[in-house]
Design brief:
This protein is mainly alpha-helical. The protein has one domain (about 10-165). About 55% of the residues lie in helices and about 5% in strands. It has helices at about 15-20, 25-40, 40-45, 55-70, 70-75, 80-100, 130-140, 145-165; strands at about 105, 120. It has a two-stranded antiparallel ribbon. Helix 2 (about 25-40) packs across helix 6 (about 80-100), helix 4 (about 55-70) runs antiparallel to helix 6 (about 80-100) and helix 4 (about 55-70) packs antiparallel against helix 8. The longest helix has 21 residues, at about 80-100.
């Protein structure tokens, strides 16, 4: 029986490194960045126009998502809904990225998942990612109006601890490494 830490952290895999250069992912990032200056603060969420990418804006964003969609199925049911939902995905992720020194990453699917890479935020003080699509799923299924801000609060606590410790280099719990 192996240790629970006998795994290769995904950030250290060849598949992860290759996914970062994926043209679809890079194009999605550029498209969403442009939408943040044009469509999002005017059409999608004008209520956050003066407080873009702040913790306070996430409350408005979650409320708006609950108003727009009955559940995750509806959020991805049509092309129009997918495009709008993906702008919210980017907005939430970008808020975490800016607040916690993160970077956008494309996380390749595992064999069981299939499909394409998922956008996520990789923060330098933790091994796990923030998946904005998952946060939207939590918000829409639980409907508490505080799912996204709760995760933001936990990330803020972790970030503050990391900063207080002098921003040490990230260590991985996984003990294995992939052979390239």
């Amino acid at each position: 029986m192996g240790s629970t830490f006998d795994y290769v952290p995904i950030q250290l895999t060849k598949a992860f490194r290759e996914a970062q250069a994926d043209e679809k992912f890079q194009g999605w990032l550029k498209m969403q960045e442009a939408a943040m200056g044009i469509v999002f603060p005017i059409e999608d969420a004008p209520e956050v126009r003066d407080s873009m990418f702040t913790k306070a804006s996430l409350e408005s964003i979650e409320a708006k998502l609950l108003e727009l969609y009955a559940d995750s199925v509806v959020a991805y049911a049509t092309d129009e809904a997918v495009h709008r939902t993906m702008r919210y995905v980017y907005y939430i992720g970008e808020t975490f990225r800016q607040a916690f020194e993160g970077i956008w990453v494309a996380v390749p699917p595992d064999e069981k998942q299939g499909g394409g890479a998922r956008p996520a935020i990789d923060m330098p003080f933790r091994e796990t990612f923030i998946y904005p699509m998952t946060l939207i799923g939590f918000a829409l299924s639980r409907r508490t109006s505080e799912e996204i801000t709760r995760v933001y609060g936990y990330a803020h606590e972790d970030y503050e601890s990391w900063v207080s410790a002098g921003k040490p280099e990230r260590t991985y719990r996984g003990t294995l490494r992939e052979d390239d």
